Structure formats: structure tokens, C-alpha cells
């Protein structure tokens, strides 16, 4: 069956998670141990810092659960607070919840104007971003807002997609902004060289706009080159490295395919090496970013072709999901970082979001299971498995202080956040 025939009912809804997805982001306030303050954790790389998960022998208990509306945005967790971003009727809502029992501390409300695309869900896709005393949210229609963590008051809002005449694309905004110093780097995909826009965190005013490219569903990351912080952004058809101070493009390379395709997995960084992956015949590339243009270290069309799940890197081995959920080809594999050599494959594993926890990997399957397996390049070893309540789990999970936060969708307008104790 062709991609175009599948698109309205299956393919494109898979990418709405906002990954949408590494280097530690310079926050105004240092993240506390165990915090999960942004997409894919403290380093935007799927690694749970200062966490440990032991194999469970009984079903992990649900500590608390709260209902929510539409959307595929995972939560952020910081300093005893959970930030849940969703849509209810004609509003996008940011709930600040207590990590202890899930009770509502405050709620911020914003008009919801996204009318939807090829997916019935019209909620936000981007994970909230915590920085200092603020939390930033990026709505499905491209409205960016800053909210005070102390009391939930909105400090400023910008209709960025409207300001820069950006189209909704297949299903609206799905790339989570990046905080670098006192600026947010936002994939906007607007006209007149506004593919990326930097705004001040204090007032939301534009610092610079750059790159003539549509936005993708992959989130930007930082890396260090010659002691300087650089931003890597995977866009619709190009990946760029920019100077976050000026927006100047320092290097770029083609990545992506024209037609009904997306780039959705967040790039991975290790020192000066960059790994990118996408499905739809794109494949994966490992590049040396010190060269200009960046130099391929290895490139494969069918080793890792991730439709949207971001791999995790542990001890120089990649643990990754390859294939497409809609085609039933979700496969787990272990690949050597240095050269792309496959150590082992686990067919029919299904599509899952992966979190690195020391020498183990925690997988949340989209179909609704948690599985813990060993990060062992010699063989696949499952350590524990449990079923989650019925639903679809496309939102990215968050792991903080022994609790995993899993968001399930039960309809295009209804969902639920589960806080599950693993420690």
C-alpha cells in the first residue's frame, strides 16, 4: 500500500509527539538531580541522569493518574513539579502538578486555534521546556509562551507561525524549542529566511531569524565545537549548524526527502560527532561536524531508519528503533556508534520510546507496554516487562526520581497522565 494512501489514517499521526529530538542545555538555574526539564531529559539525549531502575517482579504501582485532553506532548518534570500541556475544547492548557500526588498547583490557559491536519488530534505536540524560573510552551498552531513557574502567570506570548507566515504543514508544530543562555531557538519554518528564529526569554522579542527552510518535527540540540556552543537543527530538507548568538549558518548538509515525509527523530551528539536518522528511504548518517561541509563517517540507508523514535547511546553503542509503525516493521537493534556495525536485532519489538538508565534501557511501547532490557551489545536480554492501561502511548515518557510519567491517548480528545513507580 502506498505512503499516500496510508497518510490520512496512519503514517502522519505517528510523528505528532514533538520529537519530535545532544548536549546539555545552558539553563539559567542548574537542573536538580533527577529532573527531566525538557524533551528527552536533561541532555536532550534520552539519558536519565542519576536514576536507576531495577527489574521489577510485580506490576509497578500507579502512584497517581490525572485526566487530560488532546495532544501528544510529553511532560517536563522539575523541582517537584510536573508540567502537562494539552488541549481541551478551544483552549490549550498548561497544568502544573505536584509530583507527590498529582494535585493541581496552577493552570495557565491559552486560545487554541489549530484546526488540524491529517490527524484527528488537534492538541499540542511539543514538550514543555523549563529554564530558570520560567516554563516555555509551544502550541500546535505555533504560539510560543513564557509562564512563571511560581504562580502560573503568563509573562509573554508570540504567534510565531503567524508572524513569519509559516504553514501548518501536515499536522502543525512538533519541534520543541531549545534554550541557549537567554534565548530560545525556535524552528518556525516561516517565509523570508525564518526557518529558525531566536527570541529573548525575558520578553519574547526576536533576536534574529535565519535559514530558508521549512521546520521539521525533530528538535534542535547543542554541541561544542572548538570550545564554542553551536546549535544543530534538523529541518525539512537540510540540517544546519548555526552560531546561537548571531544565527549565522556555519555549515549544513542535505537530509530528508521531498514528498509526504518527515524528519522527526532528535539528532544525537557525542563530542564533535553527529548522528541523524529518518525513515521514508532517508536512513542515517554519522558526521564529523568539525569539517565544512560536515564529513560523513558512515552512512547507511537501511541500518537505522527511525520514523520518529530517538535512539539512545550507551558505552558507544546505539540502541535504536528502526522501521515504520504503520507498516508493522518496528525493530529494536544495537549498532556500534563508530562504524554502524549491527551487533544484534530484535525483530517485531514494535515502535517504542527509549530511555537510557545506566547500563539498562527502558522502553515504552506505543502499543502500551514497559520493558526493561540490558544495554548489552553481546545479546538482547529482557529484564522485566509489564502492560500499561489500554491506550496509545505516542507521547514521550519522562523518568524522574524513580517515577516514569506515561501519557496515554484514549480518543482524539481525551487522554490521561500516569505516574508509575519504578523505584
TrEMBL record:
- Where does this protein have coiled-coil stretches? none
User: Which positions fall inside the Pyrrolo-quinoline quinone repeat domain?
Assistant: 64-209
Q: Name one Pfam family in it.
A: PQQ_2
Q: Which PANTHER family match?
A: CELL SURFACE PROTEIN (PTHR34512), OUTER MEMBRANE PROTEIN ASSEMBLY FACTOR BAMB (PTHR34512:SF30)
Protein name per Swiss-Prot or TrEMBL: PQQ-like beta-propeller repeat protein
Q: Print the organism lineage.
A: Bacteria, Pseudomonadati, Planctomycetota, Planctomycetia, Pirellulales
Amino acid at each position: 500500500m502506498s505512503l499516500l494512501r496510508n497518510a490520512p489514517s496512519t503514517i502522519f499521526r505517528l510523528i505528532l509527539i514533538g520529537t519530535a529530538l545532544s548536549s546539555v542545555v545552558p539553563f539559567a538555574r542548574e537542573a536538580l538531580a533527577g529532573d527531566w526539564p525538557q524533551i528527552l531529559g536533561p541532555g536532550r539525549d534520552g539519558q536519565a541522569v542519576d536514576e536507576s531502575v531495577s527489574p521489577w517482579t510485580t506490576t509497578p504501582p500507579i502512584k497517581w493518574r490525572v485526566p487530560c485532553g488532546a495532544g501528544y506532548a510529553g511532560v517536563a518534570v522539575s523541582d517537584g513539579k510536573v508540567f502537562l500541556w494539552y488541549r481541551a475544547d478551544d483552549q490549550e492548557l498548561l497544568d502544573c502538578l505536584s509530583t507527590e500526588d498529582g494535585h493541581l498547583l496552577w493552570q495557565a490557559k491559552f486560545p487554541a486555534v489549530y484546526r488540524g491536519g491529517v490527524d484527528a488530534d488537534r492538541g499540542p505536540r511539543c514538550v514543555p521546556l523549563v529554564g530558570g524560573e520560567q516554563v516555555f510552551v509551544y502550541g500546535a498552531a505555533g504560539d510560543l509562551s513564557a509562564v512563571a513557574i511560581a504562580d502560573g502567570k503568563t509573562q509573554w506570548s508570540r504567534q510565531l507561525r503567524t508572524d513569519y507566515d509559516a504553514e501548518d504543514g501536515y499536522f502543525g508544530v512538533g519541534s520543541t524549542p531549545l534554550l541557549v543562555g537567554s534565548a530560545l531557538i525556535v524552528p518556525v519554518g516561516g517565509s523570508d529566511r525564518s526557518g529558525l528564529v531566536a527570541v529573548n526569554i525575558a520578553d519574547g522579542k526576536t533576536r534574529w531569524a535565519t535559514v530558508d527552510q521549512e521546520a521539521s518535527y525533530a528538535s534542535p540540540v547543542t554541541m561544542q565545537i572548538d570550545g564554542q556552543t553551536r546549535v544543530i537543527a534538523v529541518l525539512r530538507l537540510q540540517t544546519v549548524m548555526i552560531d546561537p548568538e548571531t544565527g549565522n549558518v556555519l555549515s549544513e548538509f542535505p537530509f530528508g526527502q521531498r514528498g509526504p515525509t518527515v524528519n522527526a527523530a532528535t539528532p544525537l551528539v557525542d563530542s564533535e560527532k553527529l548522528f541523524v536518522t529518518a525513515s521514508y528511504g532517508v536512513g542515517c548518517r554519522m558526521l564529523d561536524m568539525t569539517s565544512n561541509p560536515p564529513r560523513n563517517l558512515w552512512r547507511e540507508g537501511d541500518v537505522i531508519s527511525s520514523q520518529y523514535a530517538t535512539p539512545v547511546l550507551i558505552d558507544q553503542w546505539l540502541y535504536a528503533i528502526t522501521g515504520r509503525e504503520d507498516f508493522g516493521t518496528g525493530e529494536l537493534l544495537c549498532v556500534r556508534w563508530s562504524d554502524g556495525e549491527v551487533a544484534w536485532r530484535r525483530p517485531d519489538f514494535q515502535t517504542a520510546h527509549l530511555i537510557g538508565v545506566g547500563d539498562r534501557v527502558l522502553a515504552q511501547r506505543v502499543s502500551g507496554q514497559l520493558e526493561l532490557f540490558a544495554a548489552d551489545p553481546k545479546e538482547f536480554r529482557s529484564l522485566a516487562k509489564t502492560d500499561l492501561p489500554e491506550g496509545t502511548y505516542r507521547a514521550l515518557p519522562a523518568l524522574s526520581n524513580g517515577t516514569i510519567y506515561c501519557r496515554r491517548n484514549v480518543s482524539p480528545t481525551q487522554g490521561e497522565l500516569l505516574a508509575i513507580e519504578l523505584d
